[in-house]
Amino acid sequence: MKIQQILTLIIFYLLTARTEAMAQTDLIPSSPKRETRAVWLTTYQSLDWPKDKATSPEGIARQQDELRHILDRLQEAHFNTVLLQTRVRGSVIYPSAIEPWDACLTGTPGGSPGYDPLAFAIRECHKRGMELHAWLVTIPCFKKTEAARAGKSSVLKTHPQLCVPHGDSWYLDPGQPGTADYLSSICREIALNYDIDGIHFDYIRYPENAAQFNDKKTYRRYGKQQNLAQWRRDNVTRCVRTMYQAIKAVKPWIKVSSSPIGKFDDLSRYSSYRWNAFSAVYQDAQGWLAEGIQDMLFPMMYFRGNNFYPFAIDWQENDHGRPVIPGLGVYFLSPQEQDWPLTDITRELYFIRRIGLPGQAYFRYAFLNENHKGIFDFLRNFYYPYPALPALCKATDSLPPAIPARLSLRSEEGIGRLCWEASTDSVCGTSVRYNVYAARDADPDITSAASLIAASLDTCALPVDARFCLQYNIHFAVTSIDRFGNESRPAYLSISVSSQTDDEADSRFLPHDRTLLTVPKRQAPFLSIEDLEGRTIQTVPYRKQIRIDKLTGGIYQLRTRDKKGRSARIGFFIK
Fold first, then answer.
1. For residue range 419-464, what is the model confidence (pLDDT) as tens digits?
2. What are the CA-CA distances from residue 384 to residues 255, 302, 360 (Å)?
3. In this structure, are residues 181 and 220 in contact, taking their beta carbons and an 8 Å threshold?
């Protein structure tokens, strides 16, 4: 389906289905205009993507088509954020000067896929108005059995002093001062080379069974008789701080986030049962928010009942003005996991909105796509009825970009295009995107998700069905939005013909046979043909028919004109 047809359907939906839905507000959950709707897209062992291996030109094409299909599915359900696993386990999915290629792309550790998957994913997300955040698995490296296959560029070979064995795997040692710098070099490489929207730290913590973690030598050397638990928390915080500062030094608009354990610590009335961020794995995630070294958090709240609700409130009460987006364990809906009923997730979704947390994230894509217990259908058809903008991250910058200028409807080769001039921002420069709103018979309400028809466009034009807009008196508004989420005031444009009723709409378009246009009777010495921007195409003496065979395709208006230049519109015609 062509994009013009898609936009026509969207606007038609705006005029019909949305009106019916609003009449049944008791059945429709409140759908906010701002709400981060994120999904973790796992590349580890190709769990979510890619299933096809890039070992030939055909394999590359299939791998890319696979990702396009995933993003189309997410766009269909009005998702706006993809957390793409970019650093997997000491290996990456982009051409890096620091770490080797991950085997998920070709089936071979260190094997190049012949293209840049991260750059490709960013482009495809931005085409669909989605943000892409590079998800980095930070502290784990790889299984001990895979160490020999990791190659000469693995961290175990290039920085062996940073690595320690624990259980069946190798890990970076957060207590080594060089660990923060090493991880920061990866963040800096991504920030410098990619138009990334966010960088997301996963597993930025000590591993499970941390009491047995092999860091006694590091502690003796750097602990300075500090309490071991606090020293470990300080080590993790130093890594977070160093990475955050490295990213912001390159591009201050990149959103930096983490996915801490879903329970921060024991609450006065509810126990974490020894599995929490603060004490068990030494993540002072609420302290990171207070210090301002995280722009947002995605706590992994893969729980239900009293293991979820009071801890969600705790995150909200300690967010320090920054978005906290609960991560939901939709994989538990699978009969192969814990076979939760759908209501366990839907209750959490309603609760999140009711208390005002600014979004949700889902682990992981395959369980959404497989529609366990109908979760994907619920989101697409009910919970996310309209598009939404990601949560606002205003802690770094709260100034909106300039208002889009010279908003107009143009017709090129028979295709209508809503156009405007590019805006700029004081921090992001020209790295600005655009939101388009539409409504019938009145200026759109830009505070309402029901008016939003296109979000986070990276171009200054949107294809529209111009005839449809004229016939149904569509009004548009366009705003610019910076990478922090600050939105400008709107520029408005009314695409209307007259105040005629809908029953008279068809008569607004003048009949012709592509060569001769029949002119209604008027008392006027001259006729002029103008485009929709008011530019005169030709002026002729008044006659019953005028030739239009040499006009290019588009929408035109026919006007009378007297000897003093005064003019009145007769009607429109489409060539």
1. 999 998 888 888 899 999 999 878 899 999 999 999 999 999 998 8
2. 23, 21, 11
3. no
